[in-house]
Amino acid sequence: MLNDDGGFLTLVNGDSRIRFHAIWLRDNAWDAATRSADNGQRLIAVRDIPQKTTISAARLIRETLSVTFAPEDKTVDYDVAWLLQNAYDRKENISTGWTKSGVETWDSGLMTRIPVADFETVSTDPFELKNWLGQIARFGFGKLLNGPVEDLALMQVVDLFGYVRETNYGRHFEVRTEVNPTNLAYTGLGLQAHTDNPYRDPVPTIQVLYCLESSAAGGENMVVDGFRAAECLRAENEDWFNVLARYCAHFEYSGSDGVILQSRRPMIELAPDGELIGLRFNNRSTAALKDVPFDDLETYYAAYRRLGEIIDDPAMEVSFRLEPGESFLVDNRRVLHARKGYSGAGKRWFQGCYADMDSLHSKLAVLETEQLVATQ
């Protein structure tokens, strides 16, 4: 159904009436002159579309919508399912701090269904790899069992989905007890749940930790869903949630020669439309707050304290012990990780590295597409 001037059309889908502008439809045409058949990228810019583009005719034939544009007199066919999947004419999310479809926040109740897979299985079975990566996308972390107990085996974990992000720590870092360490992670002290490297911009979005030796008592790993913690804070006091999202914190690291890393980002990071997209929380690396106005500083610290209390609540944590050949991966924008203290007796040797979620999402999308095609 066209409106009077052809500026948009309305697609009736059951009880729903979904509108699409002419300019949006023309920009999203999938004909050979507009999109590359090889990679789907646009071959034209918006400036190449006539400014007064309208719809002169539209016809629905089963699952295909055929649209003719003026003044080009160009007809383009659209898959109705694709249009519905990408429809933008919908009720806006009015609650700040919403999470996108497919994300499931959690607390300690997830202990009974930790996302876990077998290393050999996901290395050889694309279906099982898809399932494991899908759980990481959903919950923000995943565990692997029965991997090789050998130096740099963690690189094989990253090879399952993407690439290592090299930092000043190198392509990987060692986590052992050290004398006069440059980082508290290298001591036997327990660590508060935190996100890694908040002083980087952009922050590494994946961290992998791989166990090679674990004979010391204690040292259990813990993970906390930062998105759930933010939701709890918002439910308790929306002003506290908003103040941590509104003002930037400062983070800094300068523990190595020749390295001074600094960033300025909110502890709770939102997209412009209010989507919750990240959390930066690391008491060890938080520098002096310089961007919170005097009148809001006490409120900010009250919110900061309460967020930390929520994160530290045992009801929020999922804990597990890693044995040699086991590893876990966290979405470092979302899931905080921690370690309980361990004794000096025995040995504890982990290796860690960073990677990025865009590669994981890419691999997951490829596997989903391949398996969808295989079932058709």
Automatic annotation (TrEMBL):
<feature type="domain" description="TauD/TfdA-like">
    <location>
        <begin position="128"/>
        <end position="354"/>
    </location>
</feature>
<dbReference type="InterPro" id="IPR003819">
    <property type="entry name" value="TauD/TfdA-like"/>
</dbReference>
<dbReference type="Pfam" id="PF02668">
    <property type="entry name" value="TauD"/>
</dbReference>
<dbReference type="InterPro" id="IPR042098">
    <property type="entry name" value="TauD-like_sf"/>
</dbReference>
<keyword id="KW-0408">Iron</keyword>
<keyword id="KW-0479">Metal-binding</keyword>
<dbReference type="GO" id="GO:0016706">
    <property type="term" value="F:2-oxoglutarate-dependent dioxygenase activity"/>
</dbReference>
<keyword id="KW-0560">Oxidoreductase</keyword>
<protein>
    <submittedName>
        <fullName>Gamma-butyrobetaine dioxygenase</fullName>
    </submittedName>
</protein>
<dbReference type="GO" id="GO:0045329">
    <property type="term" value="P:carnitine biosynthetic process"/>
</dbReference>
<dbReference type="GO" id="GO:0046872">
    <property type="term" value="F:metal ion binding"/>
</dbReference>
<comment type="similarity">
    <text>Belongs to the gamma-BBH/TMLD family.</text>
</comment>
<dbReference type="InterPro" id="IPR050411">
    <property type="entry name" value="AlphaKG_dependent_hydroxylases"/>
</dbReference>
<dbReference type="InterPro" id="IPR038492">
    <property type="entry name" value="GBBH-like_N_sf"/>
</dbReference>
<keyword id="KW-0223">Dioxygenase</keyword>
